[in-house]
Amino acid sequence: MKLITLTSDLGTKDSYLASVKGAIYSELENVNIIDINNNIPPFDILSAAYVLRNCYKDFPIGTIHIISIDDELTISNEHLAVYSDGHYFLAADNGFFSLLFNEKNPELIFRIDMPLKSNSMTFAFKNVFVPAACHIARGGTLEIIGKKVDDFKVNKMELKPVTQNNVIRGAIIYVDNYGNATTNIKKEEFLKLKKDKRFMILFGREDNIINTISKQYNDVEMGEKLAIFGENNYLQISINKGMANRLLGLNMHEKVRIEFV
Which of 12, 185, 202, 221 could be cross-linked to 206 through a Cys-Cys bond (beta carbons 3.0 to 4.6 Å apart)? Predict the structure, then answer.
């Protein structure tokens, strides 16, 4: 059975998501649709890329991923079908793929130009990506639905932390459902500078300081703040059984600094 995953900013309030799923089932009877996250903040390709990058490799080879974020067709926002790591990805060329693969070049990229049943380009999720996904799920090739792209350009890059002397300057790149604030600082970058040094993690108005790395959330008392490296090895600022983003003012793009002494 083929798997098709959905990642979008459609939300669940309206009929859009149900319409997308209905269109898939109308074309394919033997298919499994998995919702990865349809509550991505509107137009937030950074959050969408972060979420998908952290889970797509856990799906079986051959899984088809549809991503609908800011996908209205324009000259500079074309629709692409991409093959990489044994998976298929359908999304707009709005910087999402550069963020998803993070400097890695996908193996195959095709610009979708297949005949469509609808002339409406305001609902590309249903009218462009669903037919393309169903074609792939039936065993169709990318050559049938588009033209190969050989000059893919990276037009957006994930914000990188800056290391200078004994300081790492990073930022919040994702806030999850528990209020955990994930930074763009990786464990390997932290360990490279730390060695035998003490450190301070500063954030908010920089009157919030953490000087230890926890192994699990319960290492601190309930309601206490902590720093931890998540499963993806990115530094995370959290509160044990609390909402760190609200209580510590850790919203997207807020600065986080680590000083080694």
Answer: 202
CA-wise closest residue to 8 among 101, 116, 90, 77: 90
pLDDT for the residue 150: 85
The answer to whether 255 and 169 have CB atoms below 8 angstroms apart is: yes
Q: Count the neighbouring beta carbons within 10 Å of the beta carbon of residue 251.
A: 11
Residues in the chain: 261
pLDDT per residue as tens digits for the range 145-157: 999 998 776 665 6
Q: Are 4 and 133 in contact (CB under 8 A)?
A: yes
Half-sphere exposure of 235 (CA within 13 A, CB side): 28
- 252 token code pair: 């997207």
Q: Which residues of the chain have pLDDT under 70?
A: 75-76, 118-121, 153-158, 205-207
Q: What does the pLDDT look like over 195-235, one tens digit per residue?
A: 889 999 999 766 689 999 999 999 999 999 999 999 999 99
**Alpha carbon distance 46, 124 (integer Å):** 19
What is the C-alpha separation between 56 and 60, in angstroms, rounded?
Answer: 9
Angle between helices 16-27 and 130-137 (to 10 degrees): 30
Measured distance CA(92)–CA(7) in Å, rounded: 12
Six-digit token pair at 187? 């464990």
N-term to C-term CA, the chain? 55
Stretch (H or E) spanning 7:
strand 2-8
Global confidence as pTM: 0.86
DSSP label at 231? T
DSSP three-state, residue 241: coil
